[in-house]
Amino acid sequence: FVGTVVLKMALLVSVAVLATAFISEQQLCSVGTVCNATYAENHLGCCPYENAVCCPNKQTCCPQGSVCSDSGTYSTVCVPTNGGANTTGLSVCKSGASGNFSSTLKNILIIGDSVSIGYTPLVAQHMADVAIVLHSPNGGDGGAEETAYGVQCLDYFLKRPQDGTMLKPDIIMFNWGLHDGPLGNVTTPGQAGLPDVYAEQLENITIQLKAKQPQAKLLFALTSPYLCSAQNDGCVVNLNNQAKQIMDSHDIPTINLHDALVGYCGPPPQPSCFGKQGCFCPHCPNAGPNKGYDWLAQQVIVPGLKKLF
Questions:
Q1: Contact present, 147 and 197 (Cβ < 8 Å)
Q2: Which end of the chain is less enclosed by CB atoms within 10 A, N or C?
Q3: Which residues pair with 221 in a beta bridge?
């Protein structure tokens, strides 16, 4: 009986060790704690807290010594077990691109929201003869989300999940804006922020990028339009104006996704564009060749990137 118990305990320890080893192969956090991240490609990410409590919603985390009180996928209140004030849970940081860069071609990293997740494969396709194009963070949902998430997670966006090594692209094209007001006037960590903190946080991100990636040429993509709503698009324009001022102050060139699409589709509100209902409201997937994301890639993004070669 004793031998059986010992054997079962040994098997449990072995399974735990194998599970830990598997997780460490999929996600390494140089700072913080590995937690579940539902929308990361490997479903793992990094919580900035050391010895963090990973929350049951598989998206947020709390400091050590607290309990997660989840309310939906993104909203968590961290309740200290020994008393004290509650805090807001952090959204777990998705990591950077897991793919490999080239030793012979140009290497390009695109950091941005779900719209950028949509057009990045097409940019990669149209630049395949001259560049490797990867996207950070490595996953779905809203990508780099709001600027507060960018400030919190940028260091993780710039590292490979498997080994935590810093990505070293030749060019970084980056964008924030869609999750900073146009989607709604709310603050939800890892999903949405408010316009009044956008400029300060984008400035922080820009300074971080310049310090962490001195070898890279930077290009900022002004946010694409919200074509079906004049009100929401007005917020996009306001944020783009702020972003342009920040980039000009850092001598960082910009490409204007918004004005290019409005010039082609017409000013908001537009119920459709490229013959597709709801196109760029704010997404436009599966529009077809030379339409939607593919048009944007060919007409605006690829030429803008090639100017930096």
A1: yes
A2: N
A3: 255
